[in-house]
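Cross-posting from the modeling subforum.

Setting up a comparison between two proteins and wanted a second pair of eyes on the formatting. Protein 1 (sequence, then structure tokens):
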Amino acid sequence: MNGVLRIMRSIGNNDEYWLREDGVKMLGKYVMVAANLETRPRGSLIKTTLGMAIVCDTGDFVKKDPMQLDIAVGWKKDKETGTYYIDAL
């Protein structure tokens, strides 16, 4: 995540990075998402069911579905139980 934040800072976004109660990673008032940067450039704002989002990154998933979004979350999986829990930033 440090690399993503460094890139966002380099394009002028200095909003606070924080973790919402439900585990969603936030940049200021925006949900952080990864998207296809060819159609949604870094810094683009997108309305989602979780609130307004800002494109901060991309991923290999865009090869399969170029319209997909990936929500940044701070969840970790407990290896013993298989359940997820909210982790720190």
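Protein 2 (same layout):
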Amino acid sequence: MKNLLEKSRFIEELHVLKPRSATRKEVEWNHARSYIDRVEYLSRTEGGDAGELAIAAHYAKKEYNLKRVLIIDWDVHHGNGTESSFYNDPDVLTISLHQEYNFPSNRGYAEDVGEDSGAGFNVNIPLPAGTGNAGYLYAIEKIISPIAEQFKPEIILVSAGQDASVFDPLAQMMVTAEGFKEMAIAIKELAKRLCEGRLVLCHEGGYSAAYVPICTIKIIEGISGLQSEVREDPYYETIKGLPTNVLAPHQKQAIQQVIEVQSPFWEFENLSRV
């Protein structure tokens, strides 16, 4: 990804911020000390770092005194860790779009809506295998947007994995690079309307080494409003015959089922029109 940003010179158009590692105290906001000890040991002995958007949500609440945080997870796998962190928390609305029956196999059901005071603040949108751009954008329009409008977040955090792409070997979805760009634009517009543009996207999953950089650069185009030198999908000829922009009836039905589950908690347009 970094190579593509540099080779295309697109990185010169962006304002690059230097990140820092989370402190032990900040990680403890979301994880048990024994778990952190284990991760630190594995990091020292096998390499790597541990990071997740849940810690960012805690940080936003504690350090900036934000009262309502929206987390959208469009990684193809269910956002089970984020769900568990905030399952009874009405101040953090978690929404996961994921391929149904993928991973983990026993999580991500539409009926899992949160518990106690957090009931209704966990939204799972399990989508059928083969869902592409049209299905994801329809879910954003019909579920995420109306719920967000009512929740009124003060910041939106996105787990922006690209493993729902048409080329990912660990999933069976059909989102294209342009589809990811359209999704990013839709969420950016939501942030502009609801929380003064406060929006953070975190790169997560994505296992097609050739296609992830294309998807990522299109997402950056979407949120920045800038145009990179990657003007066309280099794999367009391979995917042009696929129904990536077609909303199939069973995909629409899956989204309507989520609306029905969430209707006791949120207002939606008339279901007969969905």
